[in-house]
Design brief:
single chain; alpha/beta; seven-stranded mixed sheet; 9 helices; about 25% helix
Length: about 325
């Protein structure tokens, strides 16, 4: 627990904004140390970018495509709180060289949620207090504590500390609305390094024959192609493929209509794969805050004088495991502070 003096308020109740991997990890790790934690999530359920969309006969992973486990603590955490919700993806993975040749990915175990990516965060959330459909708009100081206000005019708290796991742009706006000008200004550089991503999922009634289930492309439009139906737990009739556009193309077409974006991405998919048939169905999704470009990544932020913490994959190398590493680093620092 905390080593406190008479002048240092005890941190018992903690609010977390965002229920992606970082928010859920921080909550469960803090609960292990007997802290009372409430997570506030603007959407209907947890997940963040570990997202899936319902389609006829199942779902497709529209956000994070897979994850690796290199940190033993991450493995132990998932096995404790989300056992049975993820499985290895024994797919064939290839990348395209600058010369256009295809090479296999290095061998590494890659995991996915089963039967969809959101199964992991759903599993983690069963042990956490998640208040969904609550968009926190501002933080209000009340003595040594914080009140959280949502966009419907409701207030929550008081809390002894707040952890924000939203993307940098949303975190900046939250700080600005809370008149935390210095913190808001510090977020601007991080905001400039977050990249958008257009994603579409295309469906073929007749399965396609391709040498790889996951492909990193050298294409002006497409960055990633994946056979979603090859993932474990997917019992699709036909095949769903997920396409991610490059950050640059996504930014250039941030305000282009979804129909035009989908048409361009489908044509690029046909060019990369050699497929000649058109998909029988498709859906699209625009990620305004998909991933961070290389920049300073301190792991987490903890403003001890205000008892505000920041955690997220954008602070720790990106990827799913980066979100856990960021949250666990923040919690360890708070407990040792």
């Amino acid at each position: 627990m905390f080593n406190q003096t008479d002048q240092m308020p005890v941190i018992r109740r903690i609010a977390i904004v965002g229920s992606g991997m970082a928010g859920l990890s921080a909550a469960l790790l803090l609960q292990e140390q007997n802290h009372e934690v409430t997570i506030f999530e603007k959407s209907r359920g947890p997940g963040g970018r570990m997202a899936a969309k319902r389609v006829a006969g199942g779902s497709v992973d529209i956000g994070a495509q897979y994850f690796t486990i290199r940190n033993p603590a991450f493995s132990a955490f998932l096995n404790r709180y989300a056992e049975g919700s993820f499985r290895p993806w024994p797919g064939r993975f290839g990348y395209q060289t600058t010369s256009g040749q295809w090479e296999p990915f290095p061998q590494e175990t890659r995991y996915v949620g089963a039967p969809r990516m959101t199964a992991i965060t759903r599993g983690l959330s069963t042990a956490a207090d998640v208040q969904a459909q609550t968009r926190i708009d501002s933080l209000v100081r009340q003595g040594q504590q914080w009140l959280l206000n949502d966009t419907d005019g409701e207030s929550y708290g008081p809390f002894d500390a707040v952890i924000v796991t939203a993307p940098p742009a949303q975190t900046r706006d939250l700080f600005s609305n809370s008149r935390l000008t210095a913190l808001s200004d510090q977020m601007q550089d991080h905001v400039s390094h977050i990249q958008p991503c257009w994603a579409i999922a295309v469906y073929f009634r007749q399965a396609l024959e391709q040498p790889y289930d996951g492909m990193r492309c050298q294409n002006p439009i497409l960055d990633w192609i994946a056979n979603n139906s090859s993932k474990p737990g997917r019992d699709d009739s036909g095949q769903w493929w997920v396409l991610h556009a490059t950050p640059q193309w996504s930014r250039e077409h941030e305000n282009t209509s979804a129909d035009k974006v989908s048409a361009a991405m489908i044509e690029a998919f046909k060019k990369v794969t050699g497929v000649t048939v058109c998909p029988d169905d498709w859906i699209s999704h625009r990620w305004l805050y998909a991933k961070s470009s290389p920049t300073e990544q301190p792991g987490f932020r903890w403003y001890g004088d205000q008892r505000i913490g920041l955690a997220g994959d954008w602070l720790s190398g990106g990827r799913v495991e980066g979100a856990f590493n960021s949250a666990s680093g923040l919690v360890a620092h708070m407990l040792a502070d």
